[in-house]
Known about the structure:
The protein has 4 helices and 3 strands; from the N terminus they run αβααββα.
Amino acid sequence: MSTFKHPINDSLRKISDRLDYLIKQQRLKNNQHPDYVILDNADIMSLFKITSKTAHTWREEGVLPYLQIKSKIFYKLSDMYRIIDENYKPSKKK
């Protein structure tokens, strides 16, 4: 029996792979505890392939929790995993 493939599953896998890559890069740069890995707005835009306007809208709508220090926006990596898990919609069997 073949495995059902759906484009959204591929997209979520790619996002997860990029998150793993960002974790590794961040650990190498900062050597900090994994629970405190912080991403900036550019990381999030690249990760989800969205524009700054979309990121702003998601923040305003409460989709993306964030931290702001002066004009710089940051996100917790653990929140990004939670967002992916909460918005995952598995395919329905027919």
